[in-house]
Amino acid sequence: MARGSRLARLAALGLLGVLTLTGCDITDREFWVENFVRFGWPEGITDEAESMRTLWIWSSYAALLIGGVVWALIAYTVIAHRKKSDELPRQTAYNLPLEIVYTIIPFAIIAGLFFFTVVTQNEVLDRDEEPDTTIAVNAFKWNWQFVYPETAGPDGEPVDTVGTSTEIPILVVPTDQTVQFELASADVIHSFWVPDFLFKLDVIPGNENGRDNVFQVTVREEGAYVGRCAELCGTYHAYMNFEVRAVPGDVYDAYLEAREEGLSTYEALEEIGEEGVASTTTPLDLIQTKVVEQLQPAGD
User: Is 0.85 topped by the overall pTM?
Assistant: First the structure.
């Protein structure tokens, strides 16, 4: 009992130490919800994120339940069947009912997870035939280009934003509207990932019909959110950062109008009252001149 009490005190002190070192307020409800209810997952800012979050949380609960049962059975076996003498215990060659049970249960678990995963996937990948706005995302080694195909700049071409080795590209999207992303890769497989979307999609090069590289979201929260490439695409994969800037629909329209008039991404963002540079991530320091050249967009 004394040993168990000491272990309990040590565990409590360890938990308190972790909370102290991380600077967390243990009275903060959001802290407990995020770390012990959502298991560290962001709450999500899109309609689609709700389905993803629900699947993740309940899958985790199911895994904990199954793990608890397994640990309990292991503990029971260790305690109930510990060695009591040198006499060999009774040996059982076959137990058909037990074998049927431990065959059916894993199958039922896998079938259940598969069913709910497919249902969630269908909800997340479902697309409206007429989205409110469409944005083309072009990935290349090693940065991003965001094109607004329904616009026309001073040169008659759709306005776009291209990242460089010294500038994080900012993808501006409207809130409360269905946004369709059409992804393409100029070279290898990349992956478009916004953690707060609770979603990522690999960008497969050479996809002729483009169907598998298309998805839609409806963003509900205004703000700035970091984006990454989630596929190891080469030496400078870590440089492929971007930022999603979610603004109200009328502000989004004003941003596009400013871009069509010839303003740069920075100038247009400042024009609508937004910060002109990314705030969620910064460019990594480049040491070799060769790297800088490789990260410049084609034609510059």
Answer: no
Rounded to whole angstroms, the Cα distance separating 295 from 70 reads 51
Bridge-based pairing state of the strands 178-185 and 170-174: unpaired
Buried b (16+ CB within 10 A) or exposed e, 110-127: eeeeeebeeebeeebeee
Contact 281/168 with Cβ under 8 angstroms? yes
Could you report the per-residue pLDDT of 28-86, keeping only the tens digit for each?
Answer: 566 555 566 667 777 889 988 888 888 888 888 899 999 999 999 899 988 887 777 78
Q: Is the dihedral angle over the CA atoms 209, 212, 217, 222 positive or is it negative? A: negative
In this prediction, residue 289 carries a pLDDT of 45
3-state secondary structure the chain: CHHHHHHHHHHHHHHHHHHHHCCCCCCCHHHHHHHHHCCCCCCCCEHHHHHHHHHHHHHHHHHHHHHHHHHHHHHHHHHHCCCCCCCCCCCCCCCHHHHHHHHHHHHHHHHHHHHHHHHHHHHHHCCCCCCCEEEEEEEECCEEEEECCCCCCCCCCCCEEECECCECCEEEEECCCEEEEEEEECCCCEEEEEHHHCEEEEECCCCCCCHHHEEEEEECCCEEEEEEECCCCCCCHHHCCEEEEEECHHHHHHHHHHHHCCCCHHHHHHHCCCCCCCCCCCCCCCCCHHHHHHHCCCCC
Q: How many residues does the chain have?
A: 300
Residue 8's pLDDT is: 61
Homologous superfamily in CATH for domain 133-283: Cupredoxins -  blue copper proteins (2.60.40.420)
Q: How many CB atoms lie within 10 A of CB 275?
A: 13
131 touches 215 (CB < 8 A): no
